[in-house]
Design a protein that fits this description.
It is built from 9 helices and 17 strands. The strands form 3 sheets. The chain has an 8-stranded mixed sheet, sandwiched between helices. Strands 4-5-8-7-6-9 form a 6-stranded antiparallel barrel. The chain starts with a helix and ends in a 13-residue tail after the last helix. The model has no long low-confidence stretch (mean pLDDT 96).
């Protein structure tokens, strides 16, 4: 990964993008991608859609969602404490004692309070609705000068570079996916492609996957690949017998299961062989839990695949991934796209 690319990834990770509030990060994604594509536009959902070789009949949609999980302000009490609702699959347990940034009339810093051990500590039955944010306000009236019901908040947590070319922080799920899509487009600029490539930084995946639906309905792709993250299981406390064996630095992860088009997977595996890259696999028997599920059901139906980045500590403030895995996933997708002829038969059964 060159320095320009790394700066772009870190810039995305610094930018708050809770689901439904992706405008700032989309602006940065658009500015980065624009020099490398034939066209770029947005839609009513908030997606950013970049295209290469639009005249081609065979169209490939790459979707990486740019939204992150967060908090939604649901109540302000008389003393000025803020109570929250879930914005996506966020948990109360990692939140205790964390700092947050509230995106209201202006950005406000708050802390999530924790009951002192001297007073009994945090109880085992502690629920999400028990969380409260302290912004320092002395009253509801004062708090309302800065924060309104329905404002959003994210952990105040900057990305950290770790040993062995690894990175940790909030919201790698899935700003890394939006980044990978952008980098694939950048690397395709100097290559010949026979198909139309549509790279989409999608919105709302963490809450309703509406961005994927808008994108698929608009583009009507021949095939779609969701670029997301999946659960690494290579750290203490994970039951690998139950959850499978997914490791950092052992390659991109392909999904296998009923929703996944086997022919697309075979083409991706062929690319991995050409590049001498290792692949890992996860099972998605019923649904993928990603943008791929909505993309599959748009228009007349879209063949889909899911390529994922191994990620430790999913939906916590310290999600951790490897730059090596990110680079290998970009290389895999570029090779896959360059080697498509536009005549591929994606039907599992032919007559």
């Amino acid at each position: 990964m060159d320095e320009q690319s790394k700066r772009f990834l870190l810039d995305l990770l610094h930018t708050p993008s809770p689901s439904g509030y992706e405008m700032a990060i989309q602006r940065k994604w658009i500015d980065y991608v624009k020099p490398y594509v034939d066209s770029i536009e947005t839609d009513y959902a908030g997606n950013a859609i970049a295209a290469i070789n639009e005249q081609a009949d065979f169209k490939v949609l790459l979707a990486g969602h740019c939204d992150e999980i967060g908090f939604l302000i649901r109540r302000i009490d008389d003393k000025g404490f803020l109570f929250v609702e879930k914005l996506g699959g966020i948990s109360q347990r990692p939140a205790i004692g964390m700092k947050v940034t509230i995106l209201g009339k202006e950005q406000v810093t708050g802390i999530i309070g924790a009951n002192a051990e001297h007073h009994g500590g945090v109880k085992d039955e502690f629920k999400f609705h028990d969380l409260f944010i302290d912004i320092g306000a002395k009253s509801k009236r004062e708090a309302l000068q800065y924060v309104a019901i329905g404002d959003v908040a994210v952990y105040k947590r900057e990305p950290e570079l770790l040993l062995n070319d690894r990175i940790a922080g909030r919201g790698l799920d899935n700003r890394t996916g939006a980044y990978i899509v952008a980098e694939v487009l950048r690397r395709l600029q100097k290559k010949a492609v026979n198909v139309g490539v549509y790279g989409v930084s999608t919105v709302n995946e963490e809450t309703n996957m509406g961005g994927a639906y808008f994108a698929g309905a608009k583009i009507a792709p021949t095939m779609a690949i969701a670029i997301d993250v999946t659960f690494a299981t290579d750290y203490p406390s994970v039951d690998r017998g139950k959850y499978g064996e997914i490791d950092l630095e052992k390659g991109p992860v392909l999904a296998k299961g009923a929703p996944i088009n086997r022919n697309i997977n075979a083409l991706l595996e062929r690319s991995a062989d050409r590049l001498n890259l290792s692949l890992q696999y996860e099972l998605t028997p019923r649904r993928t839990g990603t943008d791929a599920d909505q993309l599959r059901l748009t228009g007349k139906g879209v063949p889909i695949a899911l390529v994922s980045l191994p990620l430790r500590y999913m939906h916590s403030p310290v999600e951790t991934a490897s730059f090596r895995d990110i680079n290998e996933e970009i290389e895999l997708l570029v090779d896959f796209l360059v080697n498509l002829t536009g005549n591929e038969n994606l039907k599992p059964v032919n007559v």
